[in-house]
Amino acid sequence: MAVSAQDIKKLRDMTSAAVMDCKKALAETDGDINKALELLKKRGIEIAAKKASRATAQGKIGSYIHAGGKIGVLVELNCETDFVANNEMFQEAIKNIAMHIAAMNPKYLKIEDVPEEELKDVDDKDEFAKENCLLFQPFVKDESKTISDYITEVVSKTGENVVLKRFVRFELGE
After folding, report:
1. Do 93 and 165 sit in the same domain of this protein?
2. Mean pLDDT of the chain
3. Using CA atoms, how far apart are residues 16 and 84, in angstroms rounded to an integer?
4. What pLDDT digit, counting tens, does each position of 111-161 carry?
5. Exposure of 50 by Cβ count < 10 A (0-12 exposed, 13-18 middle, 19+ buried)?
6. Contacts of 15 (CB under 8 A, 6+ apart)
7. Do 86 and 125 sit in the same domain of this protein?
């Protein structure tokens, strides 16, 4: 089936994937944009898994001060090269994650960071993780994905391993 340039553009606008990747995904799914989206998402996860072992010695520390100046967040997001660290999309990812932290107030980065004493009385660890661990929280800008899923998207778009290293949230009076 021939894939139209409009469909390729539409898919590219939705995913920021490369033009050839969009064309290939549409061709493989007979022009079905929803199936092509799923295919690109699956490929993005596979790409992220392949890059997970690569060193992330570059990156940026970003900040966000919530309106009124009563909540502030610092985030360290690492990547492989300073070229990606200075990329506009990478900078936007730092800001989006920092805004999420300001809004959702996670206590930990991942479940492994939670002290055993705190977990021993928890019945549902998955629910606890969604409420308290940043990587498992539904992303405030798109609740259909977690922060971990969002970072995987950044990996697939940048072509580099991206790791959320740490964060700190300050709230006036705490």
Report:
1. yes
2. 86
3. 15
4. 999 998 888 888 888 899 999 999 999 999 999 999 999 998 888 888 888
5. exposed
6. 22, 37, 40
7. yes
CA nearest neighbour of 16 among 95, 75, 92, 100:
92
Q: 0.85 cut: is pTM over it?
A: no
**Exposure class string for 53-63: b at 16+ Cβ within 10 A, else e:** eeebebbbebe
Angle at 114 between CA 118 and CA 161, to 5 degrees: 165
Domain that holds residue 41: 5-51
How many Å apart are CA 47 and CA 161, to the nearest integer?
9
Taking every pair of Cα atoms in the chain, the longest distance, rounded to a whole number of angstroms, is: 62
What CATH number corresponds to the domain at position 153?
A: 3.30.479.20
Co-location of 46 and 107 in the same domain: no
Number of domains in the chain: 2
Could you say which of 18, 33, 51 is where a domain stops?
51
Q: Which of 154, 139, 157, 126 is nearest to 60 (CA)?
A: 154
Same-domain status, 104 and 166: yes
Shared domain for 154 and 75, answered yes or no, is yes
| Cα end-to-end span (Å), the chain | 60
Torsion (CA) 156, 10, 137, 74 in degrees, nearest 10: 70
Per-position b or e across 116-140, b if 16+ CB within 10 A of its CB: eeeeeeeeeeeebbeebbbbbbebe
